[in-house]
Each structure stands twice: as structure tokens, then as C-alpha cells.
Design a protein that fits this description.
The protein is mostly helical. The protein contains 27 helices and no strands.
Length: about 500
């Protein structure tokens, strides 16, 4: 079996941007010769031509067996060398790295008894840390202020400033603890939503979290970053409770808050991406498509800071674009957008797109465009995702849609066994919802339909069941993901699903 070069090293080199690769070459050029084996290995992995580990070793050492024994050490050192280069590269733009550098400089000066210079260096760090609300680092900076004063026997400084420093310590500690508490609540909410879905009955734990958020009061003396997390929590609470207008209002407030402090956005743009995405979800839910199109254009203007930002912008832009095409029935346009999206994925080879949300949209676009073979392929990809990391309600929906697509493809024989399989899955984890029961009953009856009039009666029964269930918010949440009602109507009217969706949008 062919051996591949160490995955971590290959992943690191592949993750570098063009400018980072150029910087690395300049960085190591001052330290090693141009024909260095480090650079040869770097270039070979970067080019991606040689995948086999033994062939790579042969290319680096040109058959020198004695030298080739050091290959493992070579890879390890190259990895560390790239990291050091990237740290130097990031120092210019990353405040946290710059602060760590200033603190290290303070320690270097202190150890050489250059206390005056150390204090000056520390002053720069404190000014920068205060601007960017780095509370933990500010606690460390205050510790150094007292340490330097003690080393200098600067009793005057300690006498005049100790009370102020203690006040600052209490403030920064309280701010750090508050932000941490908000952030942990945010993560707990996220875990619950991802595992269950925002409308999946709101289990006891989720209800407790929502109630705890409602009780939160934002203290007067609160920094920018803590305010951002606070309003993110309020935003999630509104969404979970189905208050879409409140969800939109909170995210508009958040957008204004983020834009009011542009120096933070130059360091961290992830929250801003999430806010734009939330507004797209909110306006999409209210079918305000003018706002949706405007915000989709806004996505294109966001400047990514990291590779992760670039992936996140692409991911959320296309998820919302696909949702727009699905809702409006523009499935042909959606397929064209899907092709562009796939080019990006092939280029970036990211795991970020191997998610239920994307596979569901891939399925929906191809289903709507009557490309049933491809729709089934993406549905199977969705079903193959690990159930323990994906929401149960979506896994259940995938099995319902599996029945639907085989119905479209005329696989009558398969439907009988698939119906039994779906029923077992739904009963295994929890009691099926009224919506799931209604759809399963339709497929059981449909198997035994003898003619068109019989099938029409079955469809009409399903349509009536769906409309009755709509008033149930728990069932309605998952029903909104796929427009089963329109599919049934399209079958009753004997017109393509895509055509019906377009007619509904024009109305």
C-alpha cells in the first residue's frame, strides 16, 4: 500500500495562501540555502504531484539511503519552521500575537534588569490590550506592573496606584467571567439546537437555557465583545421561540453594534458573518425576498481575514442562495449556482460542506429540477452521515424524502420495504410525529392503489392531514423544511413540482 506524506504537514502546506507561501520562502531564505532539503520537500508537497511517501523520500534525497533515514526529522522540522514563519507573518495583523510578543519582550527586558525599558514596553501592551478588551492579558499586564514596581522598590508608584490596579483587576476579572458565562451558555444552546432542532419539542434542558437567557440583564459597564455575545444569546432565544421579527430586530441591532467598532472587525469578522446569515434566515422566513437579495450582495462585500472566514462566507452565502431558489421554485437557476459552488469545493477540498444542511439542499435542488437520479445520490450521501453527530429530526426527514423520491422514480416495489424501514427507524428513537405518521400512512395506502382515482383519494387524505397538522408548531418546524403540501398539490393537478412552486411565488 502506498504511503502518503505526514498528513499534518501536508494539510499545513495546502492551507497556506499564495502570499503566505511567498513569505515562507523569504523567511527561510535568510536562514537556509536555496537548495536546502527543507525547501525541496516544501515544494514537492506544495506541487502535489508525488503522493507516495517512499517516492517523496527518493525525490528529496536522490537515492542517498543514509541521509533518507532522517526523513522523519526533516518533516518535523519543516512543520515547525512553517509555524514560526506564520507566527512572524501574523504578528503584523493579529493583535493577540502582537500582545504576546510585547509580553515576551517585557520578560526578556526584566530578566536583564532593564526595568525602565520593560515598563515602557508594558505600557504599549496595556494600551493595545485595553483597546481590544483582552481582559485576561490585562490581568497579566497588571501583574507585571506590580512586579516591576517591586523590583524597582518604587514605593511611590505602589502607594499611588495600588488601589487603581486592584480596581482594574476586579473589573477585568468580572468582564472575563461574564463573557465566559455568556459564551458557555451560547455553546450549550448551540449543542441543543444542532442535536434536536430549535422546534423539536424544546426539551427540558433547552427550555431551562431559554428561561435563563430571558433573565439576563446587561450590566452598564460592559465591553463591546461582551455586548456582542449577550445579543447573540438574545437572538438565539428569539429564534428558538419562533419570534422571527424579534430575531431580525436583534440582529439589526447587532449589525449596528459590530459596525460601530470597525477596529474589532479588522481582527475578527466571524460574528459579523453570522449576523448577516441570521438576517438572511429571518427575512427568508418572512418571504421578504428584496431584503434577501440585498443581504446576499452584502455577503460578497465582507472581507475574509482567515481561510475559515472565506469558507464560512462561501458556505453561508450558498446555503441562503439555494434556500432562495428552492423557495421561489427557481430550481434551474439553483442547479447553475450549484455547479459554481461545486467548483469552489473541489478547489478547497474542505470538510465544511459535508453537512446535512448542504446535502438536503443538493437533494432539494435536483428533486425540484426533476433530476431524480442525482437527487437520490445526494439523499444517500445525507443518510450516510453519522446519526450521532446529526439531528435526529433531519435524519427522520431524510427517510421520508427517500420514500418520496422513489415514488417519483416509479420504484413501487422498493417503497414497501422502505416504508417498513422508515417506520422502524422512527419508532426506534422516539414516537413518530403526527406529520411523519401521516406521510407513512399515505405510502402504505399508495402501495395498494389500483387506479388514478384511488391515488387521488390517498393524496387528498394526505393533504387534509398536513393542513390539520400545520397548527402544531413542533411538527410545523420540520414540515417547513420540505414543502410536502405543494408536492401533493402538484400531483393532484398533475403538473411538475417546479412549475407549481413558481406559480405560488408569482401569486
Amino acid at each position: 500500500m502506498a504511503k502518503t506524506p505526514s498528513l499534518s504537514l501536508r494539510n499545513l502546506i495546502n492551507a497556506l495562501t499564495g502570499s503566505e507561501k511567498r513569505y515562507f520562502k523569504l523567511y527561510v531564505g535568510e536562514k537556509i540555502e536555496k537548495e536546502s532539503k527543507y525547501l525541496i520537500l516544501f515544494d514537492l508537497i506544495d506541487q502535489g504531484i508525488i503522493q507516495d511517501e517512499d517516492e517523496l523520500k527518493q525525490a528529496v534525497y536522490e537515492g542517498d539511503i543514509g541521509e533518507s533515514r532522517k526523513f522523519s526529522e526533516l518533516k518535523s522540522y519543516l512543520f515547525e519552521l512553517i509555524l514560526r514563519a506564520l507566527q512572524a507573518y501574523d504578528t503584523k495583523g493579529n493583535v493577540n500575537i502582537r500582545l504576546q510578543e510585547l509580553l515576551q519582550g517585557t520578560q526578556v527586558l526584566f530578566r536583564r534588569s532593564l526595568f525602565k525599558e520593560a515598563r515602557q514596553n508594558l505600557g504599549k501592551a496595556k494600551k493595545l490590550a485595553s483597546k481590544y478588551e483582552e481582559h485576561l492579558l490585562l490581568l497579566e499586564i497588571i501583574r507585571w506592573e506590580k512586579k516591576i514596581a517591586y523590583a524597582l522598590t518604587d514605593i511611590k508608584f505602589l502607594d499611588e496606584e495600588l488601589e487603581n490596579l486592584e480596581r482594574e483587576e476586579r473589573y477585568h476579572l468580572a468582564q472575563y467571567q461574564l463573557r465566559t458565562r455568556y459564551r458557555n451558555t451560547f455553546f450549550r444552546l448551540l449543542i441543543n439546537i444542532r442535536k434536536q432542532g430549535p422546534g423539536s419539542g424544546q426539551g427540558q434542558h433547552l427550555q431551562q437555557l431559554v428561561t435563563s437567557i430571558k433573565r439576563l440583564v446587561l450590566p452598564k459597564e460592559t465591553g463591546h465583545n461582551t455586548k456582542v455575545i449577550f445579543y447573540r444569546l438574545i437572538s438565539m432565544q428569539k429564534y428558538i421561540e419562533g419570534d422571527i421579527e424579534g430575531f431580525i430586530e436583534t440582529n439589526i441591532l447587532l449589525m449596528k453594534l459590530l459596525e460601530s467598532e470597525p477596529h474589532f472587525l479588522k481582527q475578527e469578522v466571524s460574528e459579523y458573518i453570522s449576523v448577516v446569515n441570521n438576517l438572511l434566515i429571518g427575512y427568508g422566513t418572512l418571504e421578504n425576498f428584496d431584503k434577501v437579495l440585498m443581504l446576499l450582495e452584502k455577503f460578497k462585500t465582507i472581507n475574509a481575514i482567515t481561510t475559515d472566514d472565506e469558507l464560512k462566507i462561501h458556505r453561508q452565502y450558498y446555503m441562503n442562495l439555494f434556500a432562495y431558489y428552492i423557495h421561489t421554485g427557481a430550481f434551474d437557476d439553483g442547479i447553475e449556482a450549484f455547479k459554481e459552488h461545486q467548483k469552489f469545493i473541489k478547489k478547497n477540498k474542505s470538510q465544511s460542506f459535508l453537512k446535512h444542511s448542504f446535502y438536503f439542499q443538493y437533494f432539494y435542488l435536483h428533486f425540484g429540477a426533476a433530476q431524480f437520479d442525482l437527487a437520490l445520490q445526494y439523499l444517500n450521501d445525507w443518510l450516510d452521515l453519522k446519526a450521532n453527530t446529526e439531528r435526529h429530526d433531519l435524519q427522520a426527514l431524510a427517510r421520508i424524502l427517500n420514500l418520496l423520491i422513489h415514488k417519483e422514480m416509479g420504484n413501487t416495489i422498493l417503497i414497501h420495504s422502505l416504508t417498513r424501514s422508515a417506520t422502524r427507524f422512527l419508532n426506534k428513537n422516539s414516537k413518530p410525529s403526527k406529520y411523519e405518521e401521516a406521510v407513512l400512512k399515505y405510502f402504505r395506502r399508495s402501495i395498494n392503489s389500483v387506479d388514478r382515482s384511488d391515488e387521488i383519494r390517498n393524496l387528498e387524505t394526505l393533504l387534509n392531514d398536513i393542513r390539520k397538522i400545520k397548527s402544531n408548531r413542533i411538527d410545523n418546524n420540520i414540515m417547513n423544511l420540505f414543502d410536502m403540501e405543494s408536492w401533493v398539490i402538484s400531483k393532484l393537478k398533475n403538473i411538475p413540482f417546479m412549475e407549481l412552486k413558481k406559480q405560488q411565488t408569482r401569486l
